[in-house]
Amino acid sequence: MKQNRTNNNKYIFLIFLAIYFLATGGIFVKLSPLPPINTGFYCVLFSIPMLTPFLKKSELQTLIRKQIATIILAWFLARDLTLWNSSFSYTSVANANLLVNLNPFTVIPVSYFLFKEKMMPKFLFGGLITLIGVLVLMANKVSMSPDRLLGDSLSLGSSIFYAMFMITVYKLRDSVTSTIIMFISAFGTLLVLATVIFFTEGFYVPQNFGELWPLLALALVSQILGQGLLAYCLGKANACLSSLITLSQPVVAALYAWVIFNESFNLQTIIAILITLTGVYLAKTQTSTNIAQEKA
Question: Does the global pTM surpass 0.85?
Fold first, then answer.
């Protein structure tokens, strides 16, 4: 049964909320003393018992019989976690946060060809404005240099896999709940990550609470509240609009820096945030207009 995606303001707010949770990922990965791919492995592993109380057995049985796409989904998410977590060892947090969120450049053209989602000029203009706002925000923080080429490449590759993760979830949400998607895909993700770890980092086991708590926090805040909420919203909102909103994640990171690290807001930051929100608003009004016209 195809989901009725209305782009209601409630779901736009929830996507922004998901972005707030997802934006903590870089913080917890940095805080984790374990190697990056091991950190991703435990993030997914600890999310499984957190999701279990919310499962419905009937839905789980239906998914196992009918939805092979979750295997693909698991591979995309595993590759995203592998590349993005690893990128922090080779580039700055600012570079990684900017490049990993360029997923609209994959989601928008793929959605156009696969799902026939219309890209009206006002939506594309809104997307351009959003990108300009993010670039203005990151202008003094991002630095491209040969020394960071590997890390930047990993982050950019991660954005492509994350885009494919979003597209696959978007399709699955026509018939499957977000909880079931996150639960089933977690097992496939663990299998892929374990294979990568075996040939690269080797397995590490958290030895004390100091090593354990960033992994638990990453699982709860980033994986469950962030990825899970975004997966839910992909059944309620347009894929292109959702990906465009994720582009604003560096804006959220700037807000975290202001609240947590007491970094001051300068005029450039304020202007960048206003430009970004304006772009999202323009894109949102265009997709809402398209939906209204289709119903008429």
Answer: no
Predicted local distance difference test score (pLDDT) of residue 90 = 78
Rounded to whole angstroms, the Cα distance separating 36 from 193 reads: 11
- The Cα–Cα gap between 85 and 34 comes to 11
Name the band, by pLDDT with cuts 50, 70 and 90, for residue 181. confident
Largest CA distance in the chain: 61
Tens digits of per-residue pLDDT, 208-245?
999 999 999 999 999 999 999 999 998 888 888 888 88
